[in-house]
Amino acid sequence: MLPSIATVSVAGTLRDKLPAIAGAGFKGVEIFEQDLVAHDGSPREVGQMVRDHGLEVVLFQPFRDFEGLPEPHRRRAFARAERKFDLMGELGARDVLICSSVHPEALGGIDRMADDFAALGEIARTRDIRVGFEALAWGRHVFDHRDAWEVVRRADHPNVGLILDSFHTLARRIDPDTIRRIPGDRIFFVQLADAPAIDMDLLYWSRHFRVMPGEGDLDVTGFMRAVAATGYTGPVSLEIFNDQFRATAPRPVAEEGFRSLMALMDDVRRAEPAARLTLPAMPPRAPVEAVEFVEFAARGVEADQLESLFATLGFRAEGKHRTRDVTVWRQGAARLVMNRSRGDFAGSAYATHGAAVCDIGLRVADAAAVADRAAALGSVAYDQRRSAGEVPIPAFRGPGGELLHVLDPGLTPVWGIEFTPLPGDDTGVGITGFDHIAQTVGYEAMARSALFYQALFPLKRAPQVDVIDPDGLVRSLALSDAAGGLRITLNGAETRRTLAGNFLAESFGASVQHLALATRDLLATADALARRGFQALPMGANYYDDLAARFDLDPAFLARLRAANALYDEENGARFLQLYGRPQGSGLFFEIVERAPGYSGFGAPNAPYRIAAQKRLLRNAAVPRA
Ligand code: MG
Ligand code: MG
Description:
By secondary structure, the chain is of the alpha/beta class.
């Protein structure tokens, strides 16, 4: 299986695309004709450029409106094909994609089309070229891979084969298992793309909304499983037409594609063990047991303010790092780390974002296995300089630029090894651990961030919800695993006027905007917090009137919620209580939640009111900005 991608999938000119594609790990590239025509060098130079990057031209595409034409169009189509064959010779491309005709004068008839392909196959044979036929979902006569296969079968020529594209099959809701009946050696090329479920014109949907496999709603895995079951061993290539990708730097999109393709093929390899996929093995997805720590980079007054907030929240400074200016605070199973040091990753994170979350530690069963999987998906291991006696914890960059560390039972003694205990008693307000981490990213980076986590860990994605901010829309999606060891909400900010967008701008792209801590009894925790001087986000009276209308709540309970500024939601009778703190510095804040078993959400119905309350606070300048 040669991991490949079409040049149309990433932005820029060929000079930008090729290094990005090669750098991300791909081995093959489909040259999209438009990219070649727009290039200012000869096809021969392009071919050389591809090979200089260690890539192979696996396909030249597209060749349109070939089959089923009456004369004189037919003769012209053959002449056109011969010119493209000349070009392919210079380029060093062996395979060409012919997509099913949309020509207004194209005639139907499987045999007529098969005769055309047989004749073209004969010309191609003399040039050592192979011709692949793809059914476009909006083709005039052929719009189903089964018909395209029938044309290829009847053409019965060794230089004529089938090209499959997951979008065209799945968008028309054709059962991908019909592919299993096609001989693998008659399939010349396979293209993959996913797409969100939107009801719209097929052509428009395909040209603008394709996304990487795993980012949309199509069963690309089922499609690829069927392809793998045929014994197909050729290139598997991403062909993604997407407006956002066209407007994003090519390298991150290429990396996103590579991660998507590797994760998908690994899933296929596990589901179709008999398939002959030559793939480097990678460890399976393994669940995160818990968030072990969240680390902040801060200095001076900002660090003091954050640590004083940790104390108000009931955390206790438990250990001081033996060599670095790092303190660990703990309550229950939740650890907050304050890193004031200048030398390590936190130092550069602070220089970029100001006070912000710089590192997240995840507890897993086997840290090396997670790190291996991350590397196989394209993550680069981060090697932090360590002094003698420090524990080598695997780390790699997360989607928001933060460092993700993975710790297993062999590594969690780090707290006793690297830290000197500080005196004091555990008191606390009832925090038991972390409930979720809320990351804010630019809207264009949302799918990429979700893909990152889902490729690595067994996380389910809840449908995206739109959260109304008084100044714009914020899209939000949630990822969580079955046991709740890792829950992440991703907020995509489109404008900087939204709370999320403003946070991104003020923090120069920091990602963790809020941290939600878990308690078993939110109202008791709220009482304890109030005694410590914790200032909750004030919620308006209208919110509680609305709660009373939405839910059948005991008036005394409602009064307690209101007195505590707590928020409430329910899912199938399972309750969810939330308490928000006030935004710090660049806008980071804490949330405390009580989650009943069976509640799988994050209080999305409350989000617009919480955001409005936060903005009210900021506009009234009630919060001194650090
Ligand atoms: Mg295609
Ligand atoms: Mg939250």
